[in-house]
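Entry 14. Structure prediction run on the chain below.
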Amino acid sequence: MWLILYHFSAIIIGIFLNTLLIFTILKKSPPNIKKYAVMILNFAITDLLATILDGLVMQRLVACGISVVYISMGPCNWISSRFCFSLYILDVHMFTHTIWILICSFLYRYYVLIHPELSRLKIQIFITLVYLPSSLILSNIFLNTDSEHDAFKIMTKSHPEINITGLTLSATCSIFEIHVMYTIIVVVGLGPPLTITCFILRNLIIQKVKVSLNSSDSKKLHLQFIQALTFQACIPVFYVFAGMCYIVQVFDLITNEYPADLLFCFAIIVPILNPISSFIYIGPYRKFIGSFFRKQQGLQPCLVHPMNISSTIN
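Output returned:
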């Protein structure tokens, strides 16, 4: 029960924050961050879809030797196990794409410190190319032919102690099939190196920006910039934790239910943290959200010091 409540709470928060961020990007992005806003918009749409899909599936994984059985606890089980499995693969591919976009955002910030800004079209083309590794995960929908009957047979044989009556099950009969191994490598194997890459790019960006410091105001902005980059570089760590839970669960390294429960508990945090980072560290968005909530509380808007607006990340 706690797992369903956790997912439900995270889903409501994630949908609200990402919907609000999409509206803010479309309506409140000033000209000086229009190009970077393309990347943030991709973030927000991907996170919104990932949150919705997670709410529809609410998946749990059960290791069964070289097989994995998926127990779907979300509304998708009103339709079919195949539908639940397809939504699960879509969800995994969205979560993976989020990490790649995060890498893109760091690469873009470093690139514009050395070269002229890219056009919006080139940014979108770049994001599309980066999407390709994640898109190949969708092949699981078509290549996985294991039926619900197979899932029940596997569970009955491997975990006879678990009551599976009335549950919606799907399965991957062998994790050593090419399309399954590819998914494991992309989702789990790339998590740590991509996280390390974020921190490396963070340090490179900070070093480049530090060269241009020549006043106390600049140093203050630099400190804010470091805080923003550090916060965003830490976000993929939750995917690393989720990946560790996946490995522990799939290879049956710990024989209890906690890795299966924690896997998506870690993953669902990311679509919440991404919009929060945008609202905190992107000046125009922070100003809009502040005025939005003051209006909801019936308060008069307060004056915003120009320094707070000029701390925009671009």
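The first strand starts at residue 59 and ends at 64.
Filed with the rest of this week's runs.
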